[in-house]
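Structure tokens please, single chain.
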Amino acid sequence: MDAELLHSPVVGMAEEEEVDMTDWNLPLAFMKKRHTEKIEGSKALAQSWRMKDRMKTVSVALVLCLNVGVDPPDVVKTSPCARLECWIDPLSMSPQKALETIGANLQKQYENWQPRARYKQSLDPTVDEVKKLCTSLRRNAKEERVLFHYNGHGVPRPTVNGEIWVFNKNYTQYIPLSIYDLQTWMGSPSIFVYDCSNAGIIVKSFKQFALQREQELEVAAINPNHPLAQMPLPPSMKNCIQLAACEASELLPMNPDLPADLFTSCLTTPIKIALRWFCMQKSAKLVPGVTLDLIEKIPGRLNDRRTPLGELNWIFTAITDTIAWNVLPRDLFQKLFRQDLLVASLFRNFLLAERIMRSYNCTPVSSPRLPPTYMHAMWQAWDLAVDICLSQLPTIIEEGTAFRHSPFFAEQLTAFQVWLTMGVENRNPPEQLPIVLQVLLSQVHRLRALDLLGRFLDLGPWAVSLALSVGIFPYVLKLLQSSARELRPLLVFIWAKILAVDSSCQADLVKDNGHKYFLSVLADPYMPAEHRTMAVFILAVIVNNYNTGQEACLQGNLIAICLEQLNDPHPLLRQWVAICLGRIWQNFDSARWCGVRDSAHEKLYSLLSDPIPEVRCAAVFALGTFVGNSAERTDHSTTIDHNVAMMLAQLINDGSPIVRKELVVALSHLVVQYESNFCTVALQFMEEEKNYAVPSPANSTETGNVTPGRDSPAIPRLRSVNSYTNLRAATTSRTLNKSLQNLNLNEEGGPAAFSPGNLSTSSSASSTLGSPDNDEYLLSFETIDKMRRVSSYSSLNSLIGVSFNSVYTQIWRVLLHLAADPFPDVSDLAMKVLNSIAYKATMNARTQRILDSGSLTQSAPASPTSKGTLIHQAGASHRSKRSSSPSSGSPPMPGASSSSLTNEVPKPPVREAPPNRPPYTPTLGGQAPHSQQFPRTRKMFDKGPDQTAEDGDETAAHRSFISVSLQTGLCDWSAKYFAQPVMKIPEEHDLESQVRKEREWRFLRNARVRRQSQRITQRGVTRLDDQIFINRNPGVPSVVKFHPFNPCIAVADKDSICFWDWEKGERLDYFYNGNPRYTRITSMEYLNGHDCSLLLTATDDGALRIWKNFADQRNPEMVTAWQGLSDMLPTTRGLARRVSIYLDRSKQGDREAVETLLPGIHRSTARYSVPHITLAPGTGKRPRHPASESRVCCSFSDGVHQTHGQSCPTIIMCSKCNMYSLALSVSSETYTCDKCRDIVRLTERISELETRIQTLIEDSENERALYTALDATSLVNTTHSVPVVEATQQANWVTVRRHNGKNKHHSSVPIRTSNRFSPLSDAPTENPVESALVIGDSITRNVKIETPATIVTCLPGARAPDIKANLKVLANAKRKYSKIIIHVGTNDVRLRQSEITKINIKEVCELANSMSAKVICSGPLPVRRSDEIVSRLSSLNGWLSKWCAQNNIGFIDNWKSFWGRPDLLKRDGIHPSRDGAALLSRNLANSLRAET
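Here you go.
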């Protein structure tokens, strides 16, 4: 059977329920992760694997009370009895020597586990000796752990009063030692080991004394006269650990085959005692030839895993770790098995002691108490490993055969693989995880273990947390030192999973030079793109907000390596390379300049047009952090910032909201760095908004009332906008925020004219004008929208006194546009930026107007402050944010939501000044803090001449707001990819998943609907007389849309959408569309109607919005929104405007386009690719629900809409589009629906327009040819006696003087063609010394100078080198002129090479000086082209004026004459019009006369 058919849901279904396979083959639109989930990082899991209080046992006290040869009075020993102490028979030597030997052996056994500790022995001590020993060890250990080992085999058992026994000096008496005193001497943290009978009594007494101490401390804390009140607070004894050999009522085992200190042997020599105990069991008989004596001869060392003894120790460690990890709670496991090396070893061995001693009716005790583990199944695996090892022992010792390694680790890895394969849902964690950790130490199994570990970590963050809690981190960290190439993909994958869950590991990686490993992987061109993507993600985490990591990676040449990967075909790699670059130079100036040297910002420009939105977003993030560096700026860095800003501004109409959100954040970094310039621009826009007389189409001219305060200058009461709905719905003229026009009132209470000088800077103003601590915006949505519609080009461009201001003006316009973005999150961020700058601007304005054009042209700081104030949060945290998921039910209606919708203006809350800072009161008549008052240094916007130093503290206090309030979460959201499973089968492909079952149900429903539709079509309907549904809509219906498969109808009014179930007659949902009040919904369309339906809405401002979760009892959510048609400003109320959505299905393939059309615009240029909408089987056309084919919906202006069905006119199909319509008896072969007829008419109209355009193009070409002929004629027709150029001389031009236009006779002069850059003719003139020469580009084409003996030469398109070449020809011909006027520069600035242009102009002037007594430079004109060209020309004009004055060269300032007069230029915005040419001619003539 075919593989695809096996995965199809139709297998096994009945024929009548068979699913139409067309639905399965259709792609889905707007169903990527960026559409279906919030752009935010994953929730941080509590990481408990990293021990904050990691400890080390530094001192060990070995207290042995053996009294060799003398038995204690309360113990009756058997005969024979266990005698071995530390594997030494004390009766085999003298008592004193035996005691010393036992002590030495015990110390060696402990040193196997902790060789660096400080050991002290106390053999048969007195009380004083114990006290001295304990206090000295505690003093040296300070706050580290101390171990107290007590062997009481030669003294009486502990007492119920909590006492152990020692000796007097003469060894004639047993002296009690209280555990309370021992606690005092040992302190905390400590670990106690009791190897004696009834040891459980000591554990109980220890806890009682610890509780008693805490009670005493509580009393001392209340009573200051208590003796303990004056003493330092002792550490809590709760951190102490105790290990006891038996319970309170148990005696130690006396089996002669076992050592007397069985508990100590289990703790210090576990392998030896485990093998001995194994041979004593009945199961040992299955291994013949193995005796107790043979066990002593096992070859190898404990720390050599290749030997039998070392391998057994390795297996024992893995098994005990596994038992503890599976039985103990995670925090207790971390404390006992990962905090201290010696403690971990003792507790592993304690598990063995429990197993062995319980077999002799003795139960070891611990504090904290452990659950029983002696019956755990892993002990059977240990027995098997021991059995396999011992079975080889006779042949190894006797015959010398090679040792065969145990299959234990291979079998456990197989078990782990089975656990991974058989599914992990709702199952306990795998028991073998600690064993996988141990296997990493083996080169034989390392590759397989890493592969399985990676598969386990891929299960999700919970798996990563489990692996880290086991202790995987130091092992994989050490493996980064390996040079094996086969491990690279596995280690990169594992580290990507770890860092995606816990990024705090970055410090460990840099400390161990682990970053170099990933740099080598990233730079390896032979590594697959997926692995390089993980490597660059790891490096991005290492440099994220970690200066040490940034420095290390910068030294590792990370920037150059990333730049090489920018154009990789793998989109995820491109995305993370950009994010990594953005993070490495974030707040790190050295990396930024390294990027400048490598032209990193220019190379990132290519990603701004990447087809993947996530890649574009990452590129914007990288460029944003590139300009957001807070270091001081130079002219070079300022120029770079401007270029980056203008490139970012091109994304203003990007179709993806995540890109536009990141764009706002990136531009906010620029706003922060150049705050003073943006404050100046903001004030100018406020002035323009005040003077803007055109009313909003949705508003009348009624103004709001503003009530002045009583104790302070009059301050506007700004209305609060508390929700996304009210932000746009509450902006009628009646409630229009007039704060920018009425920021001050006169004393009589009347409105005063707006000016920045009227802005108050009192503390009350700071509490009202949209301050960061207030919940009110300074700039309302209506105000910002009016700013967008300001079209006075000359007044706005009065800011362009110097070149840099045009960039800030353009960026301000971009932010204004983004503040009105249809996607709420984008507009929220932009509103915060705008209101922050508006607040700053108004608070820094004083009593004098600061937008005087003269002062602006005189002072121009060109770089930002090194410590610019960051944008603070425009709204307080309690301000309800605009939501993209409005609640279901009735939408908020304009007029009944809050007091902000009435003429009543609420009073502002009274705010008190901070107690540690006096309120700032400005001096009336003080000078405004404008740029001319600041020194021309790299620090641009100081606090101002009158501001106090405390303002800087407030500025610094708000710097942290930018990182909190203006973040998109892109990087964290992108990192979720690595934290989530990548090997798991997606749910939509899993045949048993809930998502798959739901899709099957929907496709079965679609098949049933299609069959019903076919039956109704075949039966036919003749009349409409059955009313199916009637109800009153909340608003006047404007658009109605049937769902193709559900009995659902969407009814849109002006700004809301209502969903009805026309079968049940009930309303399903009603929500606000989010469009501004002066706009209306004009069209709707269903996307993915066959599956997970989305609703696409269009409004007459050109915006499109897509919604999900509608009509299903859940809150609708906005999937995405974009401006389909840019610069669409609403018309006045009386004019009709409609934006329609058409789904173009004429294209073949699986892509089609959503188009937005307006009247008068044929096939709009706004086109966004989306997948196919639902297609009918075999037709390639969209199906319709029966309701849409056999029912008619009628809507009326009173909000009532009715649906009729059955007995209606015949349903007929259009012959062109195959869409169904209700019509009377018309032949289906000739019937054409209204939409198709409209399309035909539009197509014909387009053809007519194309013909007209082609005619106009031909006329324009003919006119251009005529102008060329006239120019050639004017060059020949001169008042001088110039010989006629022969046909062979057509390569040169004749130097002529312009005639008066009235006497031209074009018909009598032949038309000649020539090279426009050819040198001037070398024909002699009558009186060259007396003549003047005017030479320039096409700007001088129509210049006419009445001064006698003046030659005007026009070289269209000429630059400075072309002028120089022509002058050089004349110079070679010995031509001399009384004066030479040079007009050049307009064409040179297009090359964007300012310094080269200046050098070329200098060379032209030097050559002209050699040919004339006086040289004059004619300055450029302020052309009406891009802001960049205007800026460059302005800069060139300023430089020419200064340079000419310094070099005794005349200068004609045309800039002032032409500035602000667009009528002096032609439509192209470059060449002067008739009046402009006359003005230019007068300027040149006046200059010639003045120099005469």
